[in-house]
């Protein structure tokens, strides 16, 4: 996978402020991204350890765990795959559930593309590979703060690479130390997942008026979670949120 060019053309008129890499070095933008991602990065550590420990309990080796998390950079689907893992594994079921859990990335990617129009496909695809919920939210929030529709690529890489490397590293550490310390969930590490998403929601808060699609998605997902087995609540909640957003958008 090729590394995207960190330089980008001058911003088009009507897109707000100039992209920061026009006035500051790519290096400073990269470090700004790393510093911005630090709170989220620290939040990654506990539930990366939980995932690594759970994977080893299901028969994964210490090397297989970071290989899995490095190739499939999406924690929710990895927890789902581990919970469904058997010997021998039901691969079609795992693939289907992984797709359902990751289906939100289709909507996230579509929402992200207006901020990447100035990039070629060769530049954009590696950035989308590194996209997770946290990197996506931080990238869009940064553009909104700068009042521009142009993503700062060095900033985004600083965020995404910091999150990616932390996730892969600490899932590997969790796999290595998990058998030594037992059930890591007893220390409350699994609550970090919820805490990180609450922080994301706070950062994207734009008032109650824009939140009705979120509430609809939450209610539908909660109902389906109790009515249907597996991860169908993810797809159902996503579709309900889309329909609600279209309805409120027209109003």
From TrEMBL:
Record region (Disordered): 1-27
Q: Tell me where on the tree of life, at the top rank, the source sits.
A: Bacteria
Predominant location: membrane
Q: Which Pfam families match?
A: AzlC
How does the record classify its membrane topology?
Multi-pass membrane protein
Q: Where is the composition biased (Polar residues)?
A: 1-10
Transmembrane segment boundaries: 36-53, 65-85, 91-113, 155-178, 184-201, 208-225, 231-249
Q: What is this protein called?
A: AzlC family ABC transporter permease
Which taxonomic lineage is given here? Bacteria, Pseudomonadati, Pseudomonadota, Gammaproteobacteria, Alteromonadales
């Amino acid at each position: 996978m090729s590394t995207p060019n960190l330089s980008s053309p001058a911003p088009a008129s009507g897109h707000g402020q100039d992209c920061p890499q026009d006035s500051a070095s790519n290096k400073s933008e990269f470090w700004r991204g790393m510093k911005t991602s630090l709170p989220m990065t620290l939040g990654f550590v506990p539930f990366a350890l939980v995932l690594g420990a759970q994977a080893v309990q299901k028969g994964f080796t210490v090397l297989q765990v970071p290989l899995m998390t490095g190739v499939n950079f999406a924690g929710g689907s990895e927890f789902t795959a581990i919970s469904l893992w058997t010997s021998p594994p039901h691969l079609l079921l795992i693939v289907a559930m992984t797709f359902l859990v990751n289906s939100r990335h289709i909507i996230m990617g579509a929402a992200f593309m207006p901020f990447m129009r100035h990039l070629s496909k060769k530049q954009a695809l590696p950035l989308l590979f590194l996209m997770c919920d946290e990197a996506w939210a931080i990238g869009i929030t940064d553009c909104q703060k700068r009042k521009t529709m142009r993503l700062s690529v060095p900033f985004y890489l600083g965020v995404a690479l910091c999150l990616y490397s932390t996730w892969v590293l600490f899932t590997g550490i969790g796999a290595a130390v998990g058998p030594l310390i037992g059930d890591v969930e007893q220390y409350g590490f699994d609550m970090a997942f919820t805490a990180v998403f609450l922080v994301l929601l706070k950062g994207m808060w734009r008032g109650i008026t824009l939140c009705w699609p979120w509430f609809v998605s939450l209610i539908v997902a909660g109902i389906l979670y109790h009515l249907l087995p597996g991860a169908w609540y993810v797809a159902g909640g996503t579709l309900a949120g889309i329909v609600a957003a279209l309805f409120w958008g027209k109003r």
